[in-house]
Amino acid sequence: MGTTLSLSKFLSAAILCLAVGTALGDDVLEGNYNVTAFCTAVKTGTNLGSIVSCDYYYVCTSTGPQKAYCSSGYAFSLSTGSCTPVAQANCYYGVENPCLGRTGESWVPVTGTCNQYYYCLDGVNKGQGSCKGTQSFDKVSQQCVYGNCIAGSVDNDEPNLTNICEVVPYGKYFGDTQACDTWNYCQTNGTLQSNKCSSAYNVETGECVYANDNVCSRVTDTPLGTAPTQCDTSGDVKPNDKICGSYYTCKGQTWVSVDCAYGYYYNVGTKSCVLRKTATPVAGCNRCQYATTTWVNAVSSTTCGTYYYCNNGQASLQTCQDKYYFNENQQGCLSTSDTTSFDTYVKNNGACAGATVSDDSETTTESEVTAIPKFFDTDEETGQWI
C-alpha cells in the first residue's frame, strides 16, 4: 500500500457503509490511553496492546474493545499483533524486572516515558538513564534518536501513552479521531507514518473514499492517546463525547465524570442537564441512552438526516437519503419539502438544532414518510408501521 490509496472501490465501499454502524459505549481507559477511541480508528478485529500489562491486550470488536489474556509464558507483541513467548515479545509494561532473560549488555525503555531507559547487564538492572534534550529512546535500536520528547512531562504515577505506535501493531493502517482524511501506519521500528486522502479514509476497507457520516463517525475533538484526565481550571465543565447523559467537571486538576438525572442529557449550549428531547448534546454521543424507540436522531446541526438504530443500548449510525430528515416521532425519514413540518421538528428537537433545508427544496403543505429505516415496513392496505 503506497502513500496514495485507491479510490477504485468507492462505490461498493459506500454501499457497504450504509449497513455498517458505529458501536458506542463507556470508554475503556488506561491513563491517557483511550482504548475505545483507538478501536474506532482501526479495522474491526484488530488487536491493540495495553500500557498497563504485557499479559493482556484488547480485541476491537463491533461493540468496542474486549480484553483478552495471553497464556502463561507469553506476552503481547506489537511485531506480530498477537501473543508470543515473553523473551521474543519486546514488551515491558507491568514487568517487575525488564532486564530478565537478556544476556550481555542491553538497554530497554522505561514505560510511560519517551526518553528514559534501563541499562541491563546479563539480566540484571544496573541503572537508569535519560536521552538528552528532546531526543527519544528507540527500543528497537536501543539508542537515543532525534524526536520531540519533552523531558519531565511524562513523569507521573498513571499509565502514560507517549507514542500511538506503542499500542498499534506494526504494519497496520488505521485512521484518526481528529481528521477523517488522515491515515496512519506504524513502521517496524515503532515510528509513525501519516498521510491524507483527498476526502476520507475508510478504516474498514483501508481505502480512500468520499466522506459520509458513517465513514467519519470516528472523528471527535480528542486526539488519539489523550484521554481527558487532567484539567487546569477548577469548576470547568465539558461534555462526555460518548455518553449524552454525562459530562466532566474539573475538580482540583482532574476531570471527574458526573451523570445527569434519568432522562436528561448534558446540553452543550447551556452547559447544564435538560430533558432528552430538547437537549442538544455533543455530536457523536449515544442518543440511544434513555430512548423508548428503536430508531433515534443522531446529533446533526446541518440536515437532521442521521439517526441511530438502537439495540440493547448500542447505537449503529444510519443516514437518510438526500433531502430527507429523520423524524424520531414517526420513526422514519421524511421529505424536507414540507418545510413547515421540518422547521417545527427542528425547533422542538434539540438533536437537530440549527438544521436547515437546502434552497432548492420544493415547499408543500403535507409531510409524507417516503424513506423508511431498515428493519421497518408498512402494511400495504393500512399503511401502518409493522
Task: Describe the structure in your own words.
- The protein has 386 residues and is mainly β.
- The protein is built from 4 helices and 28 strands.
- It has helices at 10-17, 35-40, 86-89, 339-348; strands at 29-30, 33-34, 47-49, 56-61, 64-69, 74-77, 82-85, 105-109, 116-121, 124-130, 136-138, 143-145, 173-174, 182-186, 192-196, 200-202, 207-209, 237-239, 246-251, 254-259, 264-267, 272-275, 295-297, 306-311, 314-319, 324-327, 332-335, 369-371.
- The strands form 11 sheets. The chain has a 3-stranded antiparallel β-sheet. A 3-stranded antiparallel β-sheet has the order 8-9-10, with no helix packed on it. A 3-stranded antiparallel β-sheet has the order 13-14-15, with no helix packed on it.
- Strand 8 (105-109) and strand 9 form a beta hairpin.
- The chain is elongated, with a radius of gyration of 24 Å.
